[in-house]
Amino acid sequence: MFANFDTHVITNNLSYLFLDGMRFTLILTALSTVTGVFLGTLLTLMRLGRWKVLAAFSAGYVNFVRSLPLVLVIFWFFFLVPWIAMWMTGGSRPIPVGAFMSAFITFTLFEAAYFAEIVRAGIQSIPKGQPSAGYALGLRYWQVMGYIVLPQAFRNVLPVLLTQIIALFQDTTLVYVLSATDFLGAADKIAKRDFRQFELYIFVAVVYFLISFAASYAVKRLQKRVAIIH
Amino acid sequence: MITISHVNKWYGPTFQALKDCTTHVGKGEVVVVCGPSGSGKSTLIKCVNALEPIQGGEIIINGTKVNDPKTDLPKLRSHVGMVFQHFELFPHLKIIDNLCLAQEKVLGRKRSEAMERARVLLERVGLKSQAQKFPGQLSGGQQQRVAIARALAMDPIAMLFDEPTSALDPEMINEVLDVMVQLAHEGMTMMVVTHEMGFARKVADRVIFMDQGEIVEDANKDDFFGKPRSDRAQQFLSKILSH
């Protein structure tokens, strides 16, 4: 079976696979993580805050998004975002935004809901006396959150958070529905051009496995380093 | 310095935690608040710097009304030190950073200035060598002394203590009380919720006895220990002093 395994189809296309494909995947993962965690944190602060309307909106958003299949949302957004852009700019025809931008917005909005739940668990793991001590020293709400609550909350949920980021990294392969050239997309295009599906899909699987496995291992190491001494 | 008048507080619609509480703490005075658990003494002290809201009456600190929506609470709190039962040091920050955080972020002190102040105070509570450790590496008594130093770093006009020794192992209580006694002798205005009657005898000017949300007795130390007027205070004292 492996007798006619053609490694040249991989080695000849490494630059396309990694500099185009993997670059797309990693940038999409990194950017969606940053904006998703930021938005998720904001959603959580809304949810735990004083204003009932914001709390209800946040809870509704998180529950709604979490009950949708990701691939549907990716598809849906790809066709919807141009119309939203048209509406926002007051133009007369839909403005195409491209696969990357569309995927980026989708992953941000989608993952924010998951990150929000993780951050919420983190905040709720902090004893109430901690913010009280901050307020008693004269710190304001944003300072108490920024210097006392969130740093501890993120440390407490770091393993779950990073596991979710690894899942996001894997989920970015779903951009194939937009025919985007992520790592899987790049491999797929070469495979179809050269009729070498077998080699390329094996290679893609191995690469995803190695990166995810290494990341999981790094998470465990990191967790020990940043753990709070109690 | 601290005036508490006709303060009422409810938890939910039915449970009244404080009932028409009125008292005051003068400048340089040390007032000990005692009473059985659930009597509202911790609630009262948390209301003083508005960590808990009140529903009736008023609390005034140094001329500023605490329960006024227009009051800049963070600013007011920065002048009033508070020490908690469970220390509440920030576990993710080193001891020195626990002392510097609010100095820099609230008072706007420079890092070097805050560090200098922190070192002086750590030395004073006998923990200068622990500056680079994390709170979790210290004993309970040491943590509580750091917490006192952290509050003092803000140069407060008054200090509130909420059962500062209740969570400590017996052999660590005195190291904390010693710091508090020293503070009292230096003329710090202090309101102290505690069961430590030895501390009250040594440094208190007045003792307040609370029961079921009410201030039952508010007397000079000697009167309180000599001849408490209310039955409840007598019973409480006989229980707490008999062993």
TrEMBL record, chain A:
The ABC transmembrane type-1 domain, residue ranges: 22-219
Keyword Zinc-finger annotated: no
Cited CDD domains: TM_PBP2
PROSITE patterns per the UniProt record, alphabetical: ABC_TM1
Protein keywords: Cell membrane, Membrane, Transmembrane, Transmembrane helix, Transport
Domain of life: Bacteria
The keyword Transmembrane helix appears for this protein: yes
Transmembrane region(s): 24-46, 67-89, 95-116, 157-178, 198-219
Pfam families recorded: BPD_transp_1
Bilayer disposition of the protein: Multi-pass membrane protein
Major location category of this protein: membrane
Subcellular location: Cell inner membrane; Cell membrane
NCBIfam families (alphabetical): HEQRo_perm_3TM
Record-stated family: Belongs to the binding-protein-dependent transport system permease family. HisMQ subfamily.
Protein name: Amino acid ABC transporter permease
Source species: Hohaiivirga grylli
UniProtKB/TrEMBL annotation, chain B:
Annotated ranges, domain ABC transporter: 2-237
UniProt xrefs under SMART domains: AAA
Keywords: Amino-acid transport, ATP-binding, Cell membrane, Membrane, Nucleotide-binding, Transport
Taxonomic superkingdom: Bacteria
Subcellular location: Cell membrane
One Pfam family cited in the UniProt record for this chain: ABC_tran
CDD domains (alphabetical): ABC_HisP_GlnQ (cd03262)
MF terms (GO), sorted A to Z: ATP binding
Membrane topology listed for this record: Peripheral membrane protein
Family per record: Belongs to the ABC transporter superfamily.
Record's protein name: Amino acid ABC transporter ATP-binding protein
Organism: Hohaiivirga grylli
